[in-house]
Amino acid sequence: QVQLVESGGGLVQAGGSLRLSCAHSGRTYTMGWFRQAPGKEREFAAAISWSGYSTDYADSVKGRFTISRDKAKNTVYLQMDSLKPEDTAVYYCAAGGLMTRQERLYDYWGQGTQVTVSS
Fold first, then answer.
1. CA angle at 14 for the pair 94 and 21, rounded to the nearest 5°
2. How far is CA 103 from CA 15, 31, 37, 43, 75, in A?
3. How far apart (Å, rounded) are the C-alpha atoms in residues 83 and 24?
4. What angle do CA 84, 55, 37 make, to 5 degrees?
5. Is 19 within 8 Å of 77 (Cβ atoms)?
6. What pLDDT, in 10s, does the model give residues 10-67?
7. What φ, ψ does residue 66 adopt, rounded to 5°?
8. What's the CA gap between 28 and 85, in Å, rounded?
9. Please, what is the end-to-end C-alpha distance for the chain in angstroms?
């Protein structure tokens, strides 16, 4: 059973930065970050391949968020810069076998971490 544990969420002012971490057990997977704002469906934010050489970003975060991984530490990061109030959401990391934006194709999920951006 793969376990994913997110950390790094919190409250930040608009324009600020946060770095989320996702520690995972087991082998190396494709990792994704998704987010769910209040009253909205969960949406894709970013993904990184098992090798770390390929990344993908939703248009809404491209240029502001950076996904990376440290395979030695079994940890994936989401560096979030130039945060906006509309980035407020619960952020989830997920592990799967494919590089995809489709959440149904991710096999394992973390509990989520709250990110709140004040205006």
1. 25
2. 28, 11, 15, 8, 20
3. 25
4. 35
5. yes
6. 999 999 999 999 999 877 789 999 999 999 999 999 999 999 999 999 999 999 999 9
7. -135, 125
8. 33
9. 40
